[in-house]
């Protein structure tokens, strides 16, 4: 694993630090009949075999259907995966979060989550959610907690609360065509040592995906490097903080979804892609980072 780009989740008072490959597996839209269930299961299993240990899901995805797919994929191999799920904001109360987590664990066929995220900010006080997360941790049902779709002000509020500074990650939308977090949120999280999980790293959720994957600069650079446009976008999302191609320590984990074995293998191969300074500058010119803070991009 020494040559594979990794992201470290910091040690907590109760868990040692853990290193994860900088590309994981997403499951949004799985369990909804859009692809044969067997293909989704095999894709996740193939991802594990390719070293993509982190699997991200949520009670929202397919109303629990995605968790059931993940549970099937992990039968007999739970110890190979770093398992992440998310709770709805309205289920994140003192007792409702316990019930929601229990339901997720049941669908996933496991007794614990490696990471449990609040899916987006909601109306329940964060203090109450943190209390529930701590109860789940004490019961051995979750190892770490984090959040998703939190902007910088919300992260600052969270980490100022008792126990909030143990937040392991913030999962947000991030890809070459949506660089808003680079203005304020990403620098703030780097100062705090909180890694970022990038969902939709290929802009999977919108029409922009076609524009990104067929953009002349993207296709030209990918062709020159002998990789696919999708691999270029993944390598860009997990690029080193400083443009040092030899630096294997990163702080962004990309979680693309794939249901075909070839796509899974291509995603895993993107871990070995090194982007040179010229390629990065060309991508910056074509898709510049914002010079003022935009609203947090959410799908």
How would you sum up this structure, described in words?
- There is one protein chain.
- The protein is an alpha/beta fold and 299 residues long.
- An eight-stranded parallel beta sheet has the order 3-4-5-6-7-8-9-11, with helices on one face. Strands 2-1-10 form a three-stranded mixed beta sheet, with no helix packed on it.
- Strand 7, helix 5 and strand 8 form a beta-alpha-beta unit.
- Helix 3 packs across helix 4.
- It is globular.
- The protein starts with 5 loop residues before the first strand and ends in a 13-residue tail after the last helix.
- The mean pLDDT is 94.
Strand content: 5-15%
Spatial arrangement of strands, main beta sheet: 3-4-5-6-7-8-9-11
Order of helices and strands: EEEHEHEHEHEHEHEHHHEEHH
Average pLDDT rating:
94
Rounded to the nearest angstrom, the radius of gyration is 18 Å
The number of helices is: 11
Gross geometry: globular
Low-confidence stretches: none
- How many strands appear in the DSSP assignment? 11
Bin the helical content. Answer: 25-40%
Termini separation: 33 Å
Largest sheet: 8 strands, parallel
Structural class of the secondary elements? alpha/beta
């Amino acid at each position: 694993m020494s040559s594979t780009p990794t992201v470290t989740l910091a040690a907590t008072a109760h868990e040692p630090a853990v290193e994860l490959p900088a590309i994981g597996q997403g499951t949004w839209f799985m369990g909804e009949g859009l692809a044969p269930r067997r293909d989704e299961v095999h894709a996740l299993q193939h991802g594990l075999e390719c070293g993509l240990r982190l699997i991200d899901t949520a009670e929202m995805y397919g109303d629990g259907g995605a968790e059931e797919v993940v549970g099937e994929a992990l039968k007999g191999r739970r110890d190979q995966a770093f398992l992440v799920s998310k709770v709805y904001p309205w289920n994140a109360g003192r007792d409702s979060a316990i019930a929601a987590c229990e339901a997720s664990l049941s669908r996933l066929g496991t007794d614990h989550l490696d990471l449990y995220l609040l899916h987006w900010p909601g109306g329940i006080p964060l203090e109450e959610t943190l209390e529930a997360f701590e109860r789940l941790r004490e019961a051995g049902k979750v190892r770490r907690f984090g959040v998703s779709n939190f902007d910088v002000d919300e992260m600052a509020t969270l980490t100022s609360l008792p126990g909030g500074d143990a937040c392991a990650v913030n999962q947000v939308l991030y890809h070459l065509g949506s660089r808003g977090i680079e203005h304020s949120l990403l620098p703030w999280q780097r100062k705090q040592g909180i890694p970022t999980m990038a969902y939709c790293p290929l802009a999977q959720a919108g029409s922009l995906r076609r524009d990104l994957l067929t953009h002349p600069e993207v296709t030209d650079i990918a062709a020159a490097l002998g990789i696919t446009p999708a691999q270029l976008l993944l390598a860009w999302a997990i690029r080193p903080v400083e443009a040092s191609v030899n630096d294997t320590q990163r702080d962004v984990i990309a979680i693309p979804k794939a249901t075909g074995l070839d796509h899974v293998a291509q995603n895993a191969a993107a871990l070995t892609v090194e982007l040179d300074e010229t390629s990065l500058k060309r991508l910056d010119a074509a898709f510049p980072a914002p010079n003022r803070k935009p609203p947090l991009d959410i799908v």
